[in-house]
User: Fold these one by one.
Assistant:
Number 1:
Amino acid sequence: MKNYDIVIVGAGPVGCCIAERCATQLNWKVKLIDKRPHVAGNCYDRFHESGVMIHQYGPHYFRTNNEELLSYLTQFTEWLPGNYFVSSFSRNEYFHFPINLVTLAQFFKKEKLSPEEGKAMLEEVREKIENPKNSEEFVLSRVGREMYEAFYLGYTLKQWDMHPRDLSPSVCGRIPVRFNEDCRYVDHIFQLTPKEGFTAMFTRMVTHPNIDVELGIEYHKSKHQATVIVYTGPVDEYFEYRFGKLAWRSLAFEFKHVEQERIQPNVQINYPNDFDYTRTVEIKHVTQQDHPHTVISYEYPKTEGDPYYPIPTENNHALYLKYKELADEETAKNHVYFCGRLAEYKYFNTDEVLENALRTFEMIRKNHGHQ
């Protein structure tokens, strides 16, 4: 058995980032394992049978305000501009989403709205709920019932299989309302996509003589001994479901090849009130691949399957905190660090999860860098 300084369980963004830092900054011998047959985790992209690049596990729109993070990643990739545009199909119309002044003008049949007029309009239609206790109350307090039913209610029911009134305010609170005419999906300073894809970027990150990558294998604690372990898998699974299973929403994807260069007006269309799927994605708008055909992915939320989204209810959060207590003990006693969406039962955007990985690496360096 080969000795390693660190074993990292999970070759997604967290695992790749910490592996690279430990190998290059600490000169550690690193073992990186993943039960999937590829690196990059849910950021994994590949070429469809048609030759069109697709995002296998749903679209990843990289954005950040963190110049240091961007500089770090630029070691492993060139970039393409990635201004992301999303539409929501409701009332037989396509609306820019998230809601902005263009959306409001179209929805309420106005010619054009100033920021002041937009704010006054929402003030008129919103419900006066001072301390929203759930997602329904949160949205009603911001945009009123008509827009809630047009854009949020049906989407939330499909996505979570729960009514918005049973979900914490943070679920719909992640979606902004903007009083400008910026129709981009996000307003971060840097909106980019890796020129050759996420898989290529993360592969370069872990192509180092100090890093041994083993894919397609399950993690067994007894078989991988090291001074430090980073675990990025489900925290409840690590502790053998001692307190029961944490609840997740899963997804199924259907990819349709179309013999046409482009088919959608923009990368993503949400369908809050029509069809069984929540959204369709034509990632070619982002990858800017030169190809005569395209591929559309259809996203179907489901209960069983790989864990994608932690379900933010008070009970689930309380259950996670019990596991977090065990995880903190495991870190203190056995130097096992829990990092990432599955390990922390928290939804992260790609930039957020990489920042989190870099913070975890600094903690490991501080505690064990002298070994």
Number 2:
Amino acid sequence: MTELAIEPLTREAFAPFGEVIGTEGAETFPINEGTTTRFHALAIADPGPEGQVILSIFRGTRRPDPTAIRMLERHPLGSQAFMPLQPRDWLVVVAERPTTEALRCFRARGDQGVNYSRGVW
């Protein structure tokens, strides 16, 4: 079994795989008569040439430690975004190609999401 180093999730480190969704450094402006702050254009959804943008909510179960990665998904036709609904750290495992050597593991804070680019494993 190969153990993956856990890296902090930063925009720079995650750039080869997509975008980090977070409010740090975001363009902001007030809306709704000043009662709300809009964090503008945090990620760009890429539905691909024939796709459509949809939103879904998933409720997952915490996996046991240590977590074994047994499969990777790839969405060749469009991007895919994940944003936690609770303020808990979580792990993001990605790869540019489906090999053990290419795997990267990032620790996302509970206030960070990710938008996988089209074709990322």
Number 3:
Amino acid sequence: MQDERRPFGIWTAAALVVGSMIGAGIFVLPGQLAPFGWTGMAAWIAAGLGAMAIAMVIADLTRAMPHEPGLIAICGEVLGPMAGVLLGWSYWVSLWCATAVVATTAASYLSTLWPPLGTTPLHLALGGVVIVGLLTLLNLRGAKAAGRFQVATTVLKLIPLVAVVAILASLVGASGGEFSEHAHKPFAASDLTPALTLAFYAILSFETASMVTERVQDPARNVVRATLIGLAATTLLYIVVCMGIVLALPAEELAASPAPLSLFVERFWGNEAGVFIALLAAVAGIGYVNSAVLLQGELPLTAVRGGMMPAWAAPTNRHDVAVRPMVLGSVLSAILMIGGATSVGAHLLDFMLRLTTAAAIWIYIGVALSALLLRRSRGWAAISILFSLWVLYGAGIEAGGLGIVLMLLGLPLYYATRRFSSAAASG
């Protein structure tokens, strides 16, 4: 009989990894990387190899400590509760910041079907709020319901990427002339670091399955397989899709398009196909939001069950869902989206977007440091730290420094937790 507290098998865990990685990023990234030309290819390869090094460390730690409820708990066990709380806080903040951006992007794609939705920034923001609200209600019904929805959206979001691959294959089979018709910037070492940061942003969240270890059946086996398989498959798909589009269309046209995948499909298959791809791009964003909302509750819950936070920080409902942090994260996302509809808020939204990678990168550094202290996968761990610092540098001094400040904002939470624990022990 299946354990209700571990509803995720290998396929659901893999869908969580793939579904979290394939958010709205890949649907706009060809336009962002187009000005980099062939440097974009090098950036994808570097980002994929760096992520694989980190994934190898995560896999080894999961095999070594499958009893821990998640990656944050592992870091807290090895590095200490303060590090665990700070890493978890930083990652949790990056989740609802990214959720706000992706939900708004999903609403923007949906406006191709219902134009009034895109008439004003406030309409788009309210559309994003509705998406986050509905997915929060779904996740409050439990991890099993969220997992089923994730599998469904993962299958749907793969369709536009498969469509692009099919078009690229037909172009190669015909003559491949489209790939040499347009001039593209040659490789430039000076452009590699900023291009890497963009590419790695789309790869973020490959660690999702390891964040919810306690929800996965046989985690020592299935979390490892889901992470490595999901990361390798998604990165390869990204390289083919993104670089294929970049090489087949003029760089200036791609850079100016808010929906490069729709532009590409429309160019070769017509307007209706482009609209259909836009709809599925919205589904991709919705799938990401679903997994992010799930993690908004799961991360604090794993911290509680890992002994780093008191139970009052993440009380659960009858579906074993940590309601308080999940709902709080969704409310903060909604505030950010509505604030983004104003001129001041728009600056704040852009500010949070730039911080997302800088805030999320610290969990990878924490994982690598944990492995070094445990004397496990030391070579991969050293590579992971160097790679993470490279990405952090590419995010810029401002974003990197603010990411550190953002993480340190979790210190009051740690000391409040410590005082509560001391009071409970003395009582």
